[in-house]
Design brief:
It contains 29 helices and ten strands. By secondary structure, it is an alpha/beta fold. It has six domains: about 170 residues, Rossmann fold; about 60 residues, Helicase, Ruva Protein, domain 3; about 110 residues, Up-down Bundle (Zinc Finger, Delta Prime, domain 3); about 130 residues, no CATH class; about 80 residues, 2-Layer Sandwich (GMP Synthetase, Chain A, domain 3), CATH 3.30.300; about 30 residues, no CATH class. The longest helix has 17 residues. About 30% of the residues are buried. About 20% of the residues have low confidence.
């Protein structure tokens, strides 16, 4: 059996033009050779498997090549090049700093620098993984690196540039190597397939390139593994199975389920993925990447950021045309939050399923656009009001189709939509549990048959007592880990808020005081609760002015970010602002202490208080020390 040579060694570039994805480095080194501006020390840094050591070897060969042409590429035919290819060159020394990182190893290298080259003009020293050298070895190497003999050239390579001391960095020309792009990796693998007579699916090579994460050496290792598994035929399905990669088709079907609000399909797909052995976090990360790709495809200018094959690219573009940008962005945000809090969740599967359920009903929240009706609304003054009422659904975008818009306008004309407060209550109560029965089609709007419809002219009997439920205790006014549909709906309702049209609900100082104390009762800190209770409240220009007695009280109240949100929600005034003033009580200010008395002043006070002190003083013949 013949000895097998892996592709990473067999197809290792021997010329600058063969180096993949590092054209900026190759061009700069060639120009330096052409102009004669060759430095004595180089530092090649970058990720693993991108060609640092390969470029160092090619540069070492070119320097001593006897037949260098106009392109400054090694000829690989002269004695110097052949000696290097056979590992028999005495002018090129390679040192692995990971295993030779001591001062003694560096002293041995310095001793070799003293001898001139036996053949050629230069002696080249390639030190790989140079960041592994100890601090003492770096210090021993400094003088030689700064002022080497004219025939010595040092090429250092590292994957961790930040670990190299600044005195070494300042003595080298630094070249930063880039990650290999997926397209460049695929082209290189296709070239190897042509040389080896291997048939490979383009989608399979794309998977290999993405799995390599920018390292060409890793891509070649995976390629050899796939050839060993499938022979001379590399199939897409075989690559997915061997690399344990989830098929793109699952994510396309999940997004189809989100578009149709088919919760059963989404959960069954996730169950199928789990039964195949994939962890939920891998699935959610893949889904987030898929949603990102769909957002990229929404604009032709960003289509170049999609690193997939041409056939898959068209499939992405087709689905991107069907998916609204608001849905994709909201679902991507949910997937990101699910990933951030995945480690803290005890039930990982349920945590992921909750995120998927919320993604499924995003469109339902976007479609539910409430209508604002107050005494000042122009609809009450205009019996027809069709033009103004139609504007209530003007900004819904892709959430409603043309047919749904016509239905909504008809409902508005008939006075069947709920008023502002009822819509707010309905949006607050909208939760995942209420949506356990999934819709069968994406265009099915929410039904309001369970609630009593109210006409536009029907007044709200208690306009100020209705409010969104507030969490008590440790979760007071907190936002859930994964954004709730009610919060997303609230963001959608902001343009339609009554305050946006200049209509506000007035409130009195008594009502303000009641709401303020209600918030203070749920505050955990006793000191903050005391500061809140001692505040003097006033209303100036529809803004709240809170007067406190100390800077500490002001700082403590300002650290309550939920206070102003609670008051805005309580009084339905989104533009409400809180101003805190400090007014100290001068009557309680302690009097300033007088300067201390000296001995003579104390004696005078004693004499004035009691005349006998003077008589005793004279009989005893006492004097002050300073006298």
């Amino acid at each position: 059996m013949s000895q097998f040579v892996v592709s990473a060694r067999k197809y290792r570039p021997s010329r600058f033009e063969d180096v993949v994805g590092q054209e900026h480095v190759s061009k700069t080194l060639k120009n330096a050779l052409q102009t004669g501006h060759l430095a004595h020390a180089f530092l090649f840094c970058g990720p693993r498997g991108v060609g640092k050591t390969t470029c160092a070897r090619i540069l070492a060969k070119v320097i001593n090549c006897q037949n260098t042409g106009a392109d400054f590429e090694p000829c690989n035919t002269c004695d110097s090049c052949r000696a290097f290819n056979d590992n028999a060159s005495f002018n090129i020394t390679e040192l692995d700093a990971a295993s030779n990182n001591s001062v003694d190893a560096m002293r041995a290298l310095i001793d070799q620098v003293r001898f001139q080259p036996q053949q050629g003009k230069y002696k080249v020293f390639i030190i790989d993984e140079v960041h592994m050298l100890s601090a003492q070895a770096f210090n021993a190497f400094l003088k030689t690196l700064e002022e080497p003999p004219p025939y010595a050239i040092f090429i250092l390579a590292t994957t961790e540039k930040h670990k190299i001391i600044p005195t070494i960095l300042s003595r080298c020309q630094i070249y930063d190597f880039r990650r290999i792009q997926v397209q460049d990796t695929v082209k290189h693998l296709q070239h190897i397939c042509a040389q080896e007579g291997i048939e490979a699916d383009e989608a399979a090579l794309h998977i290999i390139g993405q799995k390599a994460d920018g390292a060409l050496r890793d891509a070649l290792s995976i390629f050899d593994r796939m050839v060993a598994a499938g022979g001379n035929r590399i199939r897409y399905e075989a690559v997915l199975e061997n690399l344990n990669v989830l098929d793109y088709d699952y994510y396309f079907r999940v997004v189809d389920g989100l578009l149709s609000e088919d919760l059963a399909q989404v959960l069954l797909l996730f169950d199928e993925v789990s039964r195949r052995g994939f962890d939920p976090d891998i699935f959610i990360l893949g889904l987030a990447e898929h949603l990102r790709n769909l957002l990229v495809c929404k604009d032709e200018a960003t289509l170049a950021l999609l690193e997939t094959g041409e056939s898959l690219r068209e499939r992405y573009r087709a689905q991107a045309r069907l998916a609204p940008a608001a849905l994709l962005l909201s679902a991507l945000n949910l997937a990101n939050e699910c990933d951030l809090h995945y480690k803290m969740a005890r039930n990982k599967r349920l945590h992921t399923e909750m995120a998927l359920i919320k993604m499924t009903y995003i469109q339902r929240a976007l479609r539910r656009t409430p209508f604002t009706a107050t005494e000042e609304d122009p609809e009450k003054k205009n019996p027809d009001g069709s033009e103004q009422r139609a504007k209530g659904i003007e900004h819904r975008g892709d959430a409603l189709s043309n047919v749904e818009e016509e239905k909504a306008i008809g409902q508005l004309a008939n006075g069947q939509l709920v008023n502002k407060q009822q819509a707010t209550d309905a949006s607050t109560s909208l939760s995942i549990a209420d949506n356990s029965q999934p819709a069968t089609h994406a265009s099915t709007p929410l039904s309001t048959s369970n609630s009593q419809p109210a006409t536009l002219n029907e007044p709200d009997p208690e306009p100020y007592k209705r409010e969104a439920p507030v969490l008590k205790g440790s979760d007071k006014y907190s936002i859930a880990k994964l954004s709730s549909l009610a919060s997303m709906l609230e963001d959608q309702l902001k343009p339609a808020d009554a305050t946006a049209n200049g209509h506000t609900h007035p409130f009195t100082e008594a009502e303000l005081r009641t709401a303020w104390m209600l918030y203070a009762e749920d505050v955990k800190s006793d000191s903050v609760k005391t500061y809140l209770r001692g505040v003097q409240l006033n209303i100036e220009h529809d803004n709240i002015v809170a007067t406190v007695g100390s800077n500490l009280a002001e700082s403590s109240i300002r650290q309550e970010p939920d206070l102003i949100e609670f008051l805005r929600q309580r009084f339905q005034k989104r533009e409400l602002a809180l101003h805190i003033k400090v007014q100290r009580d001068e009557s309680n200010t302690a009097p300033q202490r007088a300067a201390p008395l000296n001995d003579r002043e104390k004696l005078l006070q004693m004499r004035q208080a009691n005349p006998l002190v003077q008589e005793v003083w004279e009989r005893l013949g006492l004097t002050l020390e300073q006298e």
